[in-house]
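pasting for ref
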Amino acid sequence: MDYFLTEQQKTIKALARRIAEERILPIRAELDEKEEFPWDIVKELAAADMFRVFVPEEYDGLGGGCLDLCLVTEELSRVCSGIAVTYASSALGCMTLMEYGTEEQRRRFLPDIASGKKLSAFAITEPTAGSDASNIKTTAEKVEGGYLLNGTKQFITNGGEAEIYTVIALTDKSRGARGASAIIVEKDTPGFTFGKKEKKMGIRSSATRELVFRNCLVPEENLLGKPGLGFIQAMRLFDKSRPGIGAQAVGLCQGALEAATDYAQERVQFDQPIITLPVVQQMLAEMAIQTEAARALVYAAARYVDSGAKDVTESSAAAKVFASDAAMKVTVDAVQIYG
């Protein structure tokens, strides 16, 4: 199906696919088995300007939008979801910076993210709080010279590997979620350490760690936007980033569909390839329909985000939910075809 991509978008998508097939595919199982962070692949993606895709041109990026990010994420996820998550999470980590950062903050941090020299990460989840910022316990107390952070963040993608973190913390505990603020914290800041690397069932080439803050002093100029707007910033970030999660699911769908189709052509039962059996043909057809429908919805939602529309909550959430459900169905059916 033709989605009327620009020439630049077609080039980006094709390049991401080539890297995925030539560089990631041969080592994806090894990376997953060893739970090894893919720094060599990150460098390959950086050399191909993949991290520039989602950064504005004035900060050394290519000026692409949500759709461009989805195209790369989908192609990476088609081959290795762990690397796709690593890539997409670096984009997530700098989105708040792009949206709410001062000119000085953007010029200080974005060029290094665009070049791939530094990865970024977004930290909101805690042992007692997920996307619901009302239960956040991490604090950022205003003191002379900046903010003093104390608390723990949990299940942070790119944790320990990223250099630049956008952290949501309470600058005013008395106001609950309305007292949350977004603060940039750099990896080498005193008082900022990392907990254990999580043992996961999947996407094991992606690093997931705790972030630990113990009297971590961050300069006042690292505050993103105004104090107390962190919850609103996070919710808007989630709205704009959900198509990217949908793109990961679409990539999973496409990879599973292709693998199942190839296997069905090779697997012989009753003296014939199982792809000739009507029941298998029907399964593959339904898998293809689910994949394409998910892709269409994700691309539409991404374009809606790029249009600058004020309220993208419904379309972004729909794309994420539908694509995620499609990925579950398609991958389960692929397992059935494998027998």
